[in-house]
Amino acid sequence: LGGRKSRRTSSTAARRPLSSRSATGEQQKRATMASPRSPLSPRPPPSPGQDDTEAWRAKFVHFYQTNAPSKAKFVNDKMMAKWKGRYKELYSNLERKYGPLGAPTSPPRPPSRPGSGRAFGGRGKRTVADLSSEFEALVNKARRECPDNKAPLDLVDAKLTAAENGLETSTFTVCARIRPKLKQDEGDEDFVCVVPGEHGRAARCLVPRVSITGRPKLDEARSELDWTWGPNADEDNIFDAVGRPLVHRALDGQVGVIFAYGQTGSGKTHTMSNLMERVVGELFKSGAAANVMRHRKISFSYCEILGSDANDCLSPSHDAVKIGEMLDGRVVLKNLSEHEVEDAAQMHALVKKAAATRSTESTARNDTSSRSHGIGIVTVAPPEGCALAGKLYVIDLAGSERAADSKDHDQQRLEETKAINISLMALKECIRARTKASRPGAARSVHIPYRRAKLTQVMKDVFDVASPRLCATVVLACVAPTARDVDHSKNTLSYAAPLKVAVEAAPHLQRDDRDPALWATTQLIEWVAETAPCTMEQAKQIVNQNTGVQFCAVSESALFARCAAAELDAKQSKKLYGALWTAVIDAKTRNRRPDGTIITEEDEAREKAEKAQALRDKAALWKEREKTLRSDF
């Protein structure tokens, strides 16, 4: 039997190919030389007990350094706590995956899919980085028709009126800014692929893709906006187009809001810092503003919002700020300090101090990522006799992040990212709902969830349909230009573009004769003379040849100045302004039927009476049915 077994074994070895026999011998030789008992391999730590955590830690580190050096970083407190009491089981798993100590084996690669080889060579799938030069040529060819023009200066004020819908009391201007390439953008996937559209009214994401045959192609994602600034944009042009109009809104006792949204590292803080510097210069420039500053004071506050918490960035103790509403609907920020400023240097110092105390953390995309919403509030006191103080909100939103950017965050960073995304979604919902509420007949049926987040609650004047003054909001989407960030840039523009919702009138909208924004000049003069009351000559001087829309857009302070010039007292001026805005708000909230016709007060009373009679008839019918049922049984 032994002889037959020996002959069978030898014959089997003889039939094995020579290359296979030599390979097997070489593997055995290497395993023997590199085994733990060989003097060529490093001596492992002694076998520890099952609960000796530190000894097992040293053994795991030694194993990884010998068989898989790149994986040694996984030996940490979290791993040791997870496998406590089962260290032998973990060590066995590592030996099965990486081979015995000193004889490492590489894990098997997954089988390649058919057609996944590199085109015309079969050396693996081609990537965007491999074809970066070809993609740059395609992008340069596509962007030749995309001039980087300067934005028009009436970008914000052009949205104030819509003739068929009356006065737009709250407008939204949506723009984008593409930052230039930075020093760290030097990789193979850091070529430019986000460019302005034709005439600056759109942003184009030229997303690089590699076809199944390995050829480069561009998939265009186009976002229609009010304006898009390219990498070479002039800071002064950005301020002239969207910053200066908001400053003058605040000086006139109205509300102006500008906020920057985008990926962390896309240039939001840089843009808002330059904008704030020019805001200060506009507020305290010599000449026009000198007369304003002589009789009115300007104060500055700055708070940051982290989720549901708010802090004062200008107080020495970083006090907590409580955000709430008064019984009359006014939003108050309790414990937020207000600093009266007298010149530009003093306000610059406050802005610098606020920026230094704001919360920042290092993330995968930015070493100094803003982890809170920073809100700078400029308050301009009203003139004597007026009630409404002008407000300018300069908001630097926290950087948005995708799941891929936050996969390495700790628990605290993840909670911050979650809170940031919740507030950003609430902001988007509020803007879209407010725009929808501007449509005739929709104000009463549309819910605007501004109380859902502290950020939107601070901006209540912007979203409240019954706000007694004009509000203008500018959304500035900041995006990175490179292919590495193109997916995030596309998401940012997808967030911002829907905010540019046109306020459309109904196809057959019935004209509202009680809407002062639709009145002619003669009708307006008659109304002013009757409401103030005053003479027709005084009414003509107050109206100053304005149309209805133009007169409704006059600020409280400007209307009071006209009334004073026409020799009306403060009581008459206040009565006139209150009656004007009551009529404006009534027109915005007036009920309409789906076909665009107005539901008058008489119609509402009649429909209410008809519904009440229908309920009474139904109750009487059920009462008769109950009598019938009782008689039958």
Tell me what the structure shows.
It is a single chain. This protein has helices at residues 2-15, 18-33, 53-67, 77-82, 87-98, 132-142, 235-251, 268-283, 288-295, 344-357, 411-437, 454-458, 460-463, 486-496, 521-531, 536-543, 548-552, 556-565, 570-588, 601-632, and strands spanning 161-162, 166-167, 170-178, 194-196, 202-210, 216-224, 227-229, 255-262, 298-306, 309-312, 322-325, 331-334, 339-341, 360-361, 369-370, 373-380, 390-396, 471-479. The protein is an alpha+beta fold. Strand 9 (298-306) and strand 10 form a beta hairpin. It is globular. Mean pLDDT is 80; it is low at 1-42 and 112-123.
Describe the protein's topology.
Blueprint: H1 2-15, H2 18-33, H3 53-67, H4 77-82, H5 87-98, H6 132-142, E1 161-162, E2 166-167, E3 170-178, E4 194-196, E5 202-210, E6 216-224, E7 227-229, H7 235-251, E8 255-262, H8 268-283, H9 288-295, E9 298-306, E10 309-312, E11 322-325, E12 331-334, E13 339-341, H10 344-357, E14 360-361, E15 369-370, E16 373-380, E17 390-396, H11 411-437, H12 454-458, H13 460-463, E18 471-479, H14 486-496, H15 521-531, H16 536-543, H17 548-552, H18 556-565, H19 570-588, H20 601-632
Parallel strand pairs: 3-7, 3-18, 8-17, 8-18
Antiparallel strand pairs: 1-2, 4-5, 5-6, 9-10, 9-13, 9-16, 11-12, 14-15, 16-17
Helix pairs in contact: 7-8, 8-10, 15-16, 16-18, 18-19
